[in-house]
């Protein structure tokens, strides 16, 4: 990676707030920063399928600033390329202002803004004292953000979680903005909402912030994006400027594929279904073609996890493919991913060779409503990408389409044949 020259001249004026937002195209559909999962190859796929803005994976500021091996692995020379990977925001976790600035200086010529992670709720963030565990140290948060704001030639942004109290959340948001954050991403869950106690993100709190903060404040909403039409619903309910998706994008990168004005709840025609819920063989092939032409350690290290997520419902029916993915290791080559892609294509092709199969390739509305708006969950065939449903109070309320009885019988026959 080419390191920026600290002595290089800065732009005449650094854009702020809404002016900065408009300068990067007023994006509406955003790929979230994720640990090891929003790397270059995935960003390329997501942009091809409609994403307007992407964040890098969460990068550890101290390691990025001090360890060349980590830096080169996580940020390749093509990351932030002006023709293929912009607009781009680089996210860091940190708890030392000077170290954060040192890391940010290394990327400021390769991105449009630097983001501070104030949202990670995992135990590793607790131990490292970063992410959402900085919520208890507002003075440090101010120093981290303001140091970047005062010393970078590009804007600083921040991603936060909410508090149980609306009023405290508002005070917190104002504090972050006062330190110099030019865009505020609000994840509508508290720090405690994770794992089996994840629960639903609270869009009403984001709406409250939108109503209480100045109109020029740019707000991105994060949480509860399962289907493409949820983007429009979220924008309407929260009043946010844009919607960010993490898991929704990971399990179905086509979630951003259409404009947010798209209003049909369920795609009834073949073209719409294939566009919004691609067959796993087709989306896997598209991802593989990008992966094989994308250099950099981060993209190839992340690929195994991407396959598990893209194929999650499919793998429950075709466990031999699961075993093939599980066998991938650090020394595996692109040929291993090619063979898995071809195997999945072969399986799906055989499914569709059955003349009667077409009548089963449909998407149906569930009788379980998602929320008071009347939106409903969908039954999606396992050979198509679909959302992952996070636990609510320890329960997964709805997990997508259950295997058809015919599928169960076919799988039992296949198991018996393998025994023979």
Q: In the CATH hierarchy, what is the architecture of the largest domain at level 2?
A: Alpha-Beta Barrel
Give the N-to-C terminal Cα separation: 55 Å
Give the neighbour order of strands across the main sheet. Answer: 1-2-4-5-6-7-8-9
Radius of gyration: 22 Å
- Outline type: globular
CATH H-tier superfamily of the largest domain:
Aldolase class I
Series of H and E elements: HEHEEHHEHEHHEHEHEHEHHHHHHHEEH
Averaged pLDDT: 86
Strand content: 5-15%
| CATH-assigned fold name of the largest domain | TIM Barrel
Amount of helix? 40-55%
Instruction: Supply the CATH class of the largest domain.
Output: Alpha Beta
The structural class is alpha/beta
Low-confidence stretches: 1-12, 396-420
Task: Report on the architecture of this protein.
With 420 residues, the protein is α/β, with parallel strands linked by helices. The protein folds into two domains: 17-263, TIM Barrel; 267-420, no CATH class. Helix content is 42%, strand content 12%. It has 18 helices and eleven strands. It has helices at residues 17-23, 40-48, 61-66, 68-74, 97-105, 123-128, 138-151, 166-178, 203-212, 228-238, 247-251, 270-276, 280-292, 297-310, 312-315, 319-326, 334-353, 405-419; strands at residues 29-31, 53-55, 59-60, 88-93, 113-118, 156-161, 181-187, 218-222, 242-245, 364-369, 376-379. The strands form two sheets. It has an eight-stranded parallel β-barrel with strand order 1-2-4-5-6-7-8-9, surrounded by seven helices. Strand 8 (218-222), helix 10 and strand 9 form a beta-alpha-beta unit.
């Amino acid at each position: 990676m080419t390191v920026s020259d600290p002595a290089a001249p800065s732009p005449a004026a650094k854009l702020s707030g809404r002016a900065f937002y408009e300068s990067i195209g007023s994006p509406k559909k955003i790929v979230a920063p994720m640990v090891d999962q929003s790397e270059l190859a995935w960003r390329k796929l997501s942009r091809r399928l409609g994403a307007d803005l992407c964040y890098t994976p969460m990068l550890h500021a101290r390691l990025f600033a001090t360890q060349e091996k980590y830096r080169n692995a996580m940020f390749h020379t093509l990351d932030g390329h002006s023709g293929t990977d912009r607009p781009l925001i680089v996210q860091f976790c940190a708890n030392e202002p000077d170290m954060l600035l040192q890391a940010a200086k290394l990327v400021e010529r390769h991105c449009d803004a630097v983001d501070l992670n104030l949202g990670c709720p995992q135990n590793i963030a607790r131990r490292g004292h970063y992410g959402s565990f900085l919520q208890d140290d507002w003075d440090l948060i101010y120093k981290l953000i303001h140091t970047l704001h005062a010393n970078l030639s590009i804007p600083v942004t921040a991603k936060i979680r909410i508090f149980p109290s609306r009023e405290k959340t508002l005070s917190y948001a104002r504090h972050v903005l006062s330190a110099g954050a030019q865009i505020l991403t609000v994840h509508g869950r508290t720090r405690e909402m994770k794992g089996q106690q994840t629960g639903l993100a609270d869009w009403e709190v984001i709406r409250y912030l939108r109503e209480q903060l100045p109109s020029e404040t740019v707000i991105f909403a994060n949480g509860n994006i399962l289907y493409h039409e949820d983007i429009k619903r979220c924008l309407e309910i929260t009043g946010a400027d844009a919607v960010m998706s993490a898991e929704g994008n990971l399990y179905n990168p086509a979630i951003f594929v259409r404009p947010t004005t798209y209003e049909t709840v369920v795609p009834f025609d073949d073209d719409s279904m294939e566009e919004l819920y691609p067959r796993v063989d087709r989306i896997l092939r598209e991802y593989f073609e990008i992966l094989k032409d994308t250099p950099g350690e981060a993209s190839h290290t992340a690929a195994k996890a991407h396959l598990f997520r893209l194929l999650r419902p499919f793998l429950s029916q075709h466990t031999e493919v699961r075993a093939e993915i599980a066998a991938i290791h650090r020394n595996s080559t692109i040929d291993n991913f090619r063979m898995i892609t071809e195997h999945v294509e072969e399986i799906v092709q055989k499914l569709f060779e059955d003349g009667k199969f077409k009548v089963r390739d449909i998407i149906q509305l569930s009788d379980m409503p998602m929320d008071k708006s009347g939106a409903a969950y969908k039954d999606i065939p396992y050979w198509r990408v679909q959302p992952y449903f996070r636990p609510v109070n320890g329960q997964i309320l709805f997990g997508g389409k259950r295997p058809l009885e015919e599928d169960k019988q076919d799988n039992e026959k296949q198991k018996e044949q393998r025994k023979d």
